[in-house]
Design brief:
single chain; 75 residues; mainly alpha; 434 Repressor (Amino-terminal Domain); 5 helices; 71% helix
């Protein structure tokens, strides 16, 4: 799940979904929908979310996907 790392990072920092929503200027349900993948993530929002963690969007959202692709190529 590509967004598992986002949830893991948020919980590790002890950030609530409300805190994330407040930082992003969106509602808590909107943020939860992003984290649960029921709302499409825009590029701009991925930049804003990753900035909260001081990381690049690829490190937050796409690293798991890239790891899976590398494993498939190695098989």
């Amino acid at each position: 799940m590509m967004y598992a790392k986002l949830r893991e990072m948020r919980q590790k920092k002890r950030y609530t979904t409300q805190y994330m929503a407040d930082q992003l200027g969106i509602s808590k349900p909107f943020y939860c929908q992003i984290e649960n993948q029921t709302r499409r993530l825009s590029y701009d929002m991925s930049l804003r979310i990753s900035a909260i963690f001081g990381k690049k969007p690829d490190a937050v959202f796409y690293e798991d996907h890239l790891d899976k692709m590398k494993n498939k190529e190695a098989e």
